[in-house]
Write a structure and sequence with these properties.
This protein has about 250 residues and is an alpha/beta fold. Helix content is about 35%, strand content about 20%. The strands form two sheets. It has a seven-stranded parallel sheet with strand order 8-7-6-11-9-12-10. Strands 1-4-3-5-2 form a five-stranded mixed sheet.
Length: about 250
């Protein structure tokens, strides 16, 4: 494996890394995404076939496949690149996976407008642990932003992520005989413990607005997570975790 050294912060590759870290459009145009950290790098090496380039600061060691480009930079250059306050000394680029067509499945999760990277990453991490398939509907954060990748603890490297529009998802679920349920604070909602979630696709709504009205009106049923009456709602990632856990019961 050939190791290249870069010392200039204005190097075109390093400028591209900055763009990939900050812009979804840049990621989609380049077909690449960037992530940070030695532990995440180890997960990518183990699980992700699209690892493309690894950038290490001086003194940091990592197992890098011979097929992957390795770049060395001074520590101060890494500090200027890293989105972290305390960089671990490893940044890496991965190729975006080919888009996967939505296939309806029983016992799956649909995310509607989950915009907080921490919530989305936590949901993907939990879905990986519980082996639940997740589809991202419109309005969700980019699953390949460095914040989501970090919050997922590498789940994006281990599990395929599907992104699809609601119209396509609803039509496919209807054709496949899979009822779609939404989580909602409604008098019509059924206690999710009384529903057979293994047979459904369940929608979790956005942090601020909940499930879109368009989806609420088209859903086959509504579910509610029982909680203390004085509590208005749950964090989206917590609600998703409860739903996924119940799916496995």
């Amino acid at each position: 494996m050939t190791e290249q050294r870069i010392t200039s912060r204005k190097n075109p590759l390093l400028q591209q890394v900055r763009k990939l870290l900050s812009s979804r459009k840049a990621r989609e145009e380049a077909g690449l995404f960037a992530a940070e950290g030695t532990k995440l790098l180890a997960e990518a090496v183990r699980w992700y076939p699209g690892l493309d380039t690894v950038i290490l600061s001086d003194g940091v060691e990592a197992a890098v496949p011979d097929t992957v480009r390795l770049i060395r930079v001074p520590e101060d250059v890494m500090v200027s690149l890293s989105p972290m306050e305390s960089p671990q000394g490893a940044l890496f680029l991965c190729r975006l996976p080919p888009k996967k067509r939505f296939t309806p499945e029983k016992g799956s999760l649909l995310l509607d407008g989950i915009q907080d990277p921490g919530n989305l990453g936590t949901i993907l991490r939990t879905a990986d642990a519980l082996d639940v398939n997740v589809t991202l509907l419109e309005g969700c954060a980019d699953p390949y932003s460095h914040k989501v990748v970090r919050a997922s603890m590498g789940a994006v490297f281990r599990k395929e992520i599907v992104q699809a529009g609601w119209a396509e998802v609803k039509a496919a679920c209807a054709a496949g005989g899979i009822p779609v349920a939404v989580t909602a604070l409604s008098s019509r909602a059924t206690d999710l413990r009384q529903a057979d979630l293994k047979q459904m696709a369940v929608v979790i709504g956005s942090e601020g607005q909940g499930v879109r009205r368009e989806i609420l009106e088209a859903a086959d049923s509504e579910l509610i997570i029982p909680m203390n009456p004085r509590c208005e709602s749950l964090n989206a990632a917590v609600a998703a975790t409860i739903v996924m856990w119940q799916m496995k019961q």
